[in-house]
Amino acid sequence: MKYGLLLAATLSAAAVTSTHAVTSPQKIEVSRVTSNYAQTKYPLVFSHGMSGFIRLGNDMLGVDYWYQILPDLTRNGANVWATRVSPFNSSEIRGEQLAQQVEEVLALTGAPKVNLLGHSHGGPTIRYVAGIMPDKVASLTAIGSPNKGSPVADFILNIRDAAPVLEKPLVTIVNFLSQAIVWAQGLDPKSYPHDSLAGANSLTAAGSAKFNAKFPMGVPTTACGEGAYKEKGIYFYSFTGNTTVTNLLDPDSAMLATSLIINNKGDNDGLVPRCSARFGKTIRDNYYWNHLDEVNQVLGLRNIFAPDPVSVYRQQANRLKLQGL
Fold first, then answer.
1. How far is CA 28 from CA 31, 144, 167, 288, in A?
2. Mean per-residue pLDDT of the chain
3. Is 91 assigned a catalytic role?
């Protein structure tokens, strides 16, 4: 959710020119396909979380959001697309941006449907697309997604309410960060709407409840239960981590502080409570990962005994393949 807070400042200077239009998805290409293990029937379309991106920087110094994951899927036969939406904005605005890119993927591939995968705020983003165009979505996979909100968002807005004078400077700073993330991808920041306050409101408990009332498919009706596995022909899956500090050398260990905001007994990934991440068929909700380990960040650092995220995504693609998706 907050990946850009860790990297955007240092990588934004490495911006490169992109040949893609603002709303265009990026097809992931590799030089050699080694198997058909991940060759799904429908394209795999990935949606990043809050403060996310496709790639920051150039080919030499750049960092992919889905670090090493998407090329591995392509090498194993998958038709993979990465999408780019506003780093900070509401679930609805991000969803509309993603919907345009889904339409483009369908047009370019000739496929009738896509499999959508979203990390963090990417979860509500893909759920929006499934809600407005269910006939074009085969499956949703939510990874570490705050489907019932994140207490971190509530905490931030509570500080704002207690000290209203802080709102304008904080919003200005985060909106600037949002623009920097877009610029670092070689794009014009003015081409994307930036609204950090709308993004925060979307991920509060109240904002999530309002969103869930409009887009309820796959969301558990109990506090920590299973959601529907299939509705309107769409299959729903989720997985998440529930550990904060997994490698002391990893900068994302700083999420220990946000973890304490959520629950001082743990059971969250540093930004999202385990129960909030449950959606549809929960594949696993206790990976030894934190919020950034879920996308193999930062730069693949994690506990040596933790499952390899690259392998987990490959297995999910195979699961979708065996499901006929």
1. 10, 23, 39, 28
2. 91
3. no
Confidence of residue 60 (pLDDT cuts 50, 70, 90): low
Of the candidates 72, 252, 269, 293, the residue annotated as catalytic is: 269
- pLDDT for the residue numbered 15: 32
Query: What angle in degrees, to the nearest 10, is found between the helix axes of 122-132 and 205-214?
Result: 20
Report the alpha-carbon distance of residue 87 to residue 56 in Å, rounded.
Answer: 13
Q: Is 269 a catalytic residue?
A: yes
**Annotated catalytic residue 291:** yes
Sign of CA dihedral 31, 24, 49, 218: negative
Q: Which residue among 47, 120, 196, 202 is the active-site one?
A: 120
Q: What is the per-residue pLDDT across 210-229, written as a single tens digit (0 to 9) for each?
A: 999 999 999 999 999 999 99
In this structure, which topology does domain 3-322 adopt according to CATH?
Answer: Rossmann fold (3.40.50)
Instruction: Indicate if the pLDDT at residue 141 is higher than 80.
Output: yes
pTM of the predicted model over 0.85: yes
Domain map of the chain by residue range?
A: 3-322
Torsion of CA 56, 58, 63, 68, to 10 degrees: 130
Helix (H) / strand (E) element for 139: namely: strand 137-143
